[in-house]
Structure formats: structure tokens, C-alpha cells
Amino acid sequence: MTEAPRVDTAQLMELLSVSLGAYYGDFTVAAASENLTASQGKALTVLRRGPAAMRALAETMTCDASNMTGIIDRLEKRALVRREPDASDRRVKNVILTAEGERVTDAIRAKMRTTQAGLDSLDDEDRASLYTLLERVFAPRPTA
User: Fold this and answer.
1) Residue 72 Cα to chain centre, angstroms
2) pTM value?
3) Least enclosed by CB within 10 Å: which of 42, 48, 113, 123?
């Protein structure tokens, strides 16, 4: 049995950079087809996981709170999201994806043909392995 070739961290980071570039390009084109910027599409994708406070959304997207306000304002005008006061702290505004926002988010994913084709080329075992590895490397861990 032959050993797997040694791949160092720099090689992994380079391949990850190439992979993310391809994904981001595919995502940007798909979002544009729905008349959205990449940032607006990303906000919808984050909200597809569940409602989020404006501050948490800005942190997740690594952007300034004032920029996040502009993104959400434009999405709200298109009825893709709505803001609601937090039940426990009315000063906090939670952003919630509307049914139309869900439809647009699903349409963006469906139009990401390059990404879909790449993932579809994997067999079930490879898909499970990729999922496990990505989750291990990038899934948020509870803080102590």
C-alpha cells in the first residue's frame, strides 16, 4: 500500500484560495442574475440559516454595521427580508428572510452550475468526506 503524498499547509491554502475564487465567481454571477450584489446574496444566504441580529449579521459577513444597514435596506425594499424587534431587547433588530427571500436564495444556489457540477462529480463517500473535513476545519466551535 502506498502512502498518501505529503501536502503542506501552504499547498492546502493555495488550493482553498483557488476553490473559493471559483465558488465566489459562480456565486457572484448567480446573484447578479437575480439583480443582487454579491454582498446582498451573501446576506440572504446567511439568513437562510435563520434570523440574525443586525450586529451578528455584520460580524458574520465581516463588514461594518453601517454597510450592513445599507445592504439590509436594499433587500427590505425588495421584500426579501424584514426587520423585527428582538423579543428580549427591543433595541435589537432581527433580520428575517421572507418567503420571497427564500425563493431568491434557492434560485441563486440552483444557478451556481460550476459549483453544482463539481460537487455532483463526487461519489457519496467523497461527498461525506468533504463535508466532514470542511465541518472540522470551518464549523464554529463553542467558546469556553
Assistant:
1) 15
2) 0.85
3) 123
- Amino acid identity of residue 75, one-letter, is L
81-88 long-range contacts, CB within 8 A, separation 24+: 81/43, 81/44, 81/47, 83/54, 84/51, 86/53
Question: Chain centroid to CA 47: how far?
Answer: 9
DSSP letter string over the chain?
A: -PPPPP--HHHHHHHHHHHHHHHHHHHHHHHHHTT--HHHHHHHHHHTT--EEHHHHHHHTT--HHHHHHHHHHHHHTTSEEEEE-SS-TTSEEEEE-HHHHHHHHHHHHT-HHHHHHHHTS-HHHHHHHHHHHHHHHS-----
C-alpha cell at 127: 461527498
What is the rounded CA–CA span in Å between residue 61 and residue 65? 10
**Amino acid at position 131, single letter:** Y
pLDDT, tens digit (0-9, with 9 covering 90-100), for 61-78: 999 988 999 999 999 999
